[in-house]
């Protein structure tokens, strides 16, 4: 392998990245002609020399719109033996994407992405792997998305990505910098080589030495750009100038230098090169069928001139500027003639459609039909963005009546590919040419959906109002339902929109639309405090067609997965987990992430706090990775809640505060509930009241009478009772009573009985308090934290009644429940209550478990601050406990404590 001239530092970087073994990425960036491709080719050869398996492709401007063109090249060495390690759905999807088999129906692009990741992981188990992409800025979008999906999931795999990209790149391609970190994803920004290196390069490539004055001018004019300098030197050679003492006119730009080089070729050679430049992936076999006369001999002349080279049947321009210059230099009519001939011989539908479009002089219905058909093929291969590009082009060639339909279809493709802004612009273009009627209403509603994700709900609602004005029957019902889901202000108004949708539907309405209307009315009616009838949910479940894939069916299933948490959390969790597993199986990251959030919320209720914290953490990361930032604060709420329950109150506050800066009203109220809970857990009743009053005010401002979660309301009752404001505590309790009357459910009954016991204890009505605490304990709900808090409430009643033994039994039951859950802060609260009883617990030195633990840590050498951090309490709490330990043991110093604990 010949060594690159003037690139010693860069070569060392390449060697270091390869030696590290991966996962890693190297980006080679710089202007055209600076030597990126040469360094990239050297890196590929160096990788082979080190035993890497090399998967490489060289992207070209002509193929940027063709689906998976780069992936076909990258995975060309991957045979069926490797693909056999993939699950069958993934293998089938990948083979369709690579045109190795004909698929039936539409391929899920996520299955293709999962398959690419699976192939890379399989190969990396046998040998380290290099994924190499030259001219990555021209890589087709489906391939880019597949590589980004893979790179973001590299952890310990022996995989190195090496990409060359034109221009002053700000970040590594494929999300490598964010996924791997800057240390594992270095960027080489190539500059010019020095004058000495340039002299050696020119001497090697042109076979002659150059006078120093000429060399100095070349270096100064080109900035040391190797390709630019070489093209200028060749221009001098062609002119016969460049001898010592001559004043040599230099081409003013690199483009002009390359143009001069192309113009110097014979006309048949330029024509042969035009065919190659017009093809996405020129092959000798394909060119042989279209080149006129002695075209193949002319192509050989181009290779002899160093413009192209032949690589295992493929024709490659030695520099991308040569291809673009050849194409730009041809007259428009000549380009159209070449594309027409290439269209006639193309074996691939996508390529044929592109060539037909580029051969046309104006609108052509035949070309529009070919593009639409090719779009369907691209979508079937799992390339929605390519499909959308083809539909855009089809719309320009289609007759007027078809344009809005084609533009709307293109918008739908990019929306489901995750580009809401791109969908919005296409829907707006479709709306501008759509005639009045059902199609225009549908475009308005789809535009509202794209705007909701791209710009926010406040911009989507007015579009729904426009659709309502123009729609009739079921279409108007759809508009009312969309409006209900998009507006965030008034839940009673949202429930009203849903009821109006139901009124517009009759028994002949589409069943998936009827199901969504029933569920939407039930959902917003419940949250608006209008009550709840489980029969509506049951009816919706019964009428929803199980195989329907409409947007209404998808929304209905989402509601059906979430609604059960208010009725049966255990069944709800099982359904959500099944949805998460199904989404993960097909690579639906968005669906899996959303299910993690909903599952985590239920895990907090059911006592699986570590699982909730782990899943919510993953959901936060996924929301950031896939750009679904509206879901990040919701995931942060679940993460904060689980963190608080596990006793890290400061950590929970930090997470909640981060979520509060970016959340909508629905998530904000949940985060405020977390802050109220952490304050109450610290014993800061006034602070808890402040946070929970904000929550109540927010609910009132958006007409949310039933937020669904009851813990914050019960915490508010307890905090205000502790503050001694029993009148306000009763008002808050009345609110809980009303919620239970409108929409009764078992776990709300448990919370309500405990809250009644808290207020009755505050009033001194201990008989009522004891009765309510007993009722709270009798409610059979699988919510262990609530059960432990009911024991704690009972203990406080018994203590106030001077029933110390009964109080101790209740406290020990509460403590056992908290300890099993890992609720360390609430274990400490219970221990403090036990201490207040003044009863012996039968432990050595009469220390409480918390006092024993603190004594052990202090005797082991920890400071008070270190003990506080270890037990998730404040240093003042440690000081208070330590003072009691000293008094009980009759000692004064830490040295005494260590001595006493060492005594047998």
Automatic annotation (TrEMBL):
Gene Ontology BP, a term: regulation of DNA-templated transcription
Any one Gene Ontology cellular component term annotated for this protein: cytoplasm
Pfam families reported in the protein's UniProt record: AAA_16, GerE
GO molecular function: adenylate cyclase activity; ATP binding; DNA binding
InterPro entries membership: AAA_16, P-loop_NTPase, Sig_transdc_resp-reg_C-effctor, TPR-like_helical_dom_sf, Tscrpt_reg_LuxR_C, WH-like_DNA-bd_sf
Keywords recorded for this protein, A-Z: ATP-binding, Nucleotide-binding
Start and end residues of each HTH luxR-type domain: 840-904
Name of protein: HTH luxR-type domain-containing protein
Organism name: Actinorhabdospora filicis
């Amino acid at each position: 392998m010949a060594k690159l001239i003037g690139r010693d530092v860069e070569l060392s970087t390449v060697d270091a990245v390869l030696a590290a073994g991966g996962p890693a990425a190297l980006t080679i960036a710089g202007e055209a002609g600076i030597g990126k491709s040469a360094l990239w080719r050297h890196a590929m050869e160096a990788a082979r020399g080190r035993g890497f398996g090399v998967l490489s492709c060289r992207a070209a401007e002509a193929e940027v719109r063709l689906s998976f063109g780069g992936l076909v090249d990258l995975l060309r060495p991957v045979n069926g033996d490797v693909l056999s390690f993939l699950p069958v759905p993934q293998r089938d999807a990948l083979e369709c994407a690579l045109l190795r088999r004909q698929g039936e129906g539409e391929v899920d692009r996520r299955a293709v992405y999962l398959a690419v990741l699976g192939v890379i992981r399989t190969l990396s188990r046998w040998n380290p792997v290099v994924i190499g992409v030259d001219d990555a800025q021209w890589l087709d979008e489906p391939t880019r998305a597949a590589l980004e999906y893979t790179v973001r999931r590299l952890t310990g795999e022996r995989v190195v990505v090496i990409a060359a990209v034109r221009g002053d790149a700000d970040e590594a391609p494929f999300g490598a910098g964010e996924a791997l970190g800057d240390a594992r994803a270095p960027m080489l920004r190539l500059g010019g080589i020095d004058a000495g290196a340039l002299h050696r390069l020119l001497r090697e490539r042109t076979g002659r030495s150059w006078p120093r004055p000429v060399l100095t001018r070349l270096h100064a004019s080109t900035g040391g750009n190797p390709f630019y300098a070489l093209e200028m030197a060749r221009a001098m050679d062609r002119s016969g100038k460049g001898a010592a003492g001559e004043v040599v006119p230099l081409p003013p730009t690199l483009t002009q230098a390359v143009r001069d080089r192309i113009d110097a070729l014979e006309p048949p050679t330029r024509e042969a090169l035009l065919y190659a430049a017009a093809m996405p992936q020129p092959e000798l076999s394909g060119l042989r069928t279209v080149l006129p006369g002695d075209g193949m001999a002319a192509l050989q002349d181009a290779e002899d001139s160093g413009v192209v080279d032949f690589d295992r049947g493929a024709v490659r321009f030695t520099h991308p500027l040569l291809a673009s210059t050849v194409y730009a230099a041809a007259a428009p009519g000549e380009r159209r003639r070449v594309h027409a001939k290439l269209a006639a011989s193309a074996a691939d539908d996508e390529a044929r459609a592109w060539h037909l479009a580029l051969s046309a002089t104006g609108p052509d219905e035949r070309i529009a039909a070919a593009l639409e058909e090719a779009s369907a093929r691209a979508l079937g291969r799992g390339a929605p963005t390519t499909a959308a590009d083809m539909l855009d082009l089809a719309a320009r060639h289609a007759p007027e009546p078809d344009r809005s339909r084609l533009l709307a279809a293109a918008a739908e493709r990019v929306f489901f590919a995750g580009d809401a802004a791109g969908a919005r612009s296409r829907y707006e273009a479709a709306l501008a040419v759509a005639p009045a009627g059902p199609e225009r209403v549908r475009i308005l509603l789809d535009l509202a959906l794209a705007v909701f994700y791209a710009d926010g709900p406040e911009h989507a609602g007015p579009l729904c109002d426009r659709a309502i004005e123009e729609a009739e029957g079921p279409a108007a019902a759809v508009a009312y339902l969309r409006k209900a889901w998009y507006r965030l202000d008034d839940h009673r108004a949202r429930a009203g929109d849903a009821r109006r949708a139901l009124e517009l539907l009759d028994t002949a309405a589409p069943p998936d639309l009827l199901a969504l209307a029933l569920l939407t009315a039930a959902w917003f009616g419940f949250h608006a405090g209008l009550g709840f009838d489980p029969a509506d949910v049951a009816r919706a479940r019964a009428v929803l067609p199980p195989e329907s894939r409409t947007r209404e069916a998808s929304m209905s299933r989402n509601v059906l997965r979430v609604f059960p948490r208010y009725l049966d959390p255990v069944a709800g969790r099982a359904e959500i987990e099944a949805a998460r597993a199904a989404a993960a199986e097909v690579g639906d990251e968005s669906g899996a992430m959303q299910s993690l959030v909903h599952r985590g919320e239920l895990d907090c209720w059911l006592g699986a706090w570590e699982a909730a914290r782990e899943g919510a953490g993953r959901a936060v990361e996924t929301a950031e990775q896939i750009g679904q930032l509206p879901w990040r604060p919701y995931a942060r709420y679940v993460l904060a809640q689980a963190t608080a329950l596990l006793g890290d109150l400061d950590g929970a506050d930090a997470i909640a505060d981060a979520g509060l800066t970016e959340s909508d009203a629905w998530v904000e109220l949940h985060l405020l509930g977390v802050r109220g809970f952490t304050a109450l857990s610290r014993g800061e009743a006034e602070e808890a009241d402040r946070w929970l009053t904000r929550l109540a005010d927010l609910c009132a401002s958006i007409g949310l009478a039933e937020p669904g979660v009851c813990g914050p309301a019960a915490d508010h009752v307890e905090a205000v009772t502790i503050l001694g404001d029993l009148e306000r505590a009763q008002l808050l309790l009345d609110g809980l009573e009303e919620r239970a009357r409108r929409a009764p459910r078992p776990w709300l009954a448990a919370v309500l009985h405990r809250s009644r016991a808290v207020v009755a204890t505050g009033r001194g009505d201990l008989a009522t308090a004891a009765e309510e605490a007993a009722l709270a304990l009798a409610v059979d709900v699988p919510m262990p934290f609530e059960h432990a808090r009911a024991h704690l409430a009972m203990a406080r009643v018994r203590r106030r009644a001077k029933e110390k033994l009964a109080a101790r039994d209740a406290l020990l039951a509460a403590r056992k429940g908290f300890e099993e859950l890992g609720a360390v802060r609430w274990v400490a609260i219970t221990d403090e209550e036990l201490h207040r009883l003044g009863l012996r617990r039968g432990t050595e030195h009469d220390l409480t478990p918390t006092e024993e633990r603190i004594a052990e840590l202090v005797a082991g050498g920890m400071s008070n601050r270190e003990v506080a951090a270890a037990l998730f309490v404040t240093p003042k709490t440690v000081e208070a406990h330590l003072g009691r330990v000293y008094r009980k043991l009759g000692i004064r110093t830490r040295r005494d404590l260590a001595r006493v604990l060492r005594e047998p």
